[in-house]
Amino acid sequence: MADDPQIETRGQSTSAGAGAAVASSSRPVQPSKLSRYESQKLRDWNTFLQYLRNQQPPVDLTRCDYTHVLDFIQYLDQFGKTKVHVQGCSLFGQSGPSRACTCPLRQAWGSLDALVGRLRAAHEENGGVPENNPFANGAIRVYLKEIRDLQAKARGIPYSKKKKIRKTRDSAPVSSTSNLQQMQTTSGL
Predict the structure, then answer these.
(1) Residues 40-52: b if buried by 16+ CB within 10 A, e if exposed
(2) In this predicted model, which residue has the larger pLDDT, 102 or 136?
(3) Tens digits of per-residue pLDDT, 3-49?
(4) Is the separation of the CB atoms in 20 and 35 below 8 Å?
């Protein structure tokens, strides 16, 4: 699609052409006065609106749902710069710099997550109702989690949330077995 504008996610640019999108809001926006986040959000919002207009038939924003968002995310994959090894690749599951292989380039999970966050905010700023925000749909979160897990497996780095360790006043980690043992020794059991 030669008329699609440029998308930038987390400092990575993905270009589908040099065309410009038209802003959906009636108030003029002066890019020189916007923060980097605000300008990215505006650019992403305009790109999403252009994507909806380019659909056959064109999709009105009021009829947009999470399936259009998923299609948009999948469409952006073709402009990715992150090598994601497939199961049959000899480099699948190996961390570190990769050698040359035929595995596809994809959008990085973190870039897509940030993009969805900006579009979620832009939807509400442009008159969207939070309850009907297609970017906040559970299916989007599930899809992003699947991408995160797939990319982590392909790199050989498991993604796991770090668990917080509660600390006592003495700043020693609290463990239920150590507390039980302490109580037994101090009570003489």
Answers:
(1) bbbbbbbbbbbbb
(2) 136
(3) 444 333 344 444 333 333 334 444 444 556 889 999 999 999 999 99
(4) no
pLDDT of the residue at 48: 94
Cis peptide before 57 (omega within 30 of 0): yes
Tens digit of each residue's pLDDT (9 = 90 or more) over 131-181? 899 999 999 999 999 989 888 887 766 555 666 777 766 555 544 444 444
Pairwise CA distance, residues 169 & 140, whole Å: 41
pLDDT for 81 = 83
The answer to whether the beta carbons of residues 32 and 8 sit under 8 Å apart is no
148-158 b/e with 16+ CB inside 10 Å = b? beebbbbbeee
Quote the CA–CA distance of 49 and 72 in Å, as a whole number: 10
Instruction: State how far the alpha carbon of 158 is from the alpha carbons of 12, 58, 151, in Å.
Output: 24, 40, 9
What is the token pair recorded at 4?
Answer: 């699609």
Pull the structure tokens for residue 87: 């199961």
Q: What average pLDDT score do residues 56-71 get?
A: 92
66-76 vs 109-125: helix axis angle to the nearest 10? 140
Place of tokens 């009021």: 62
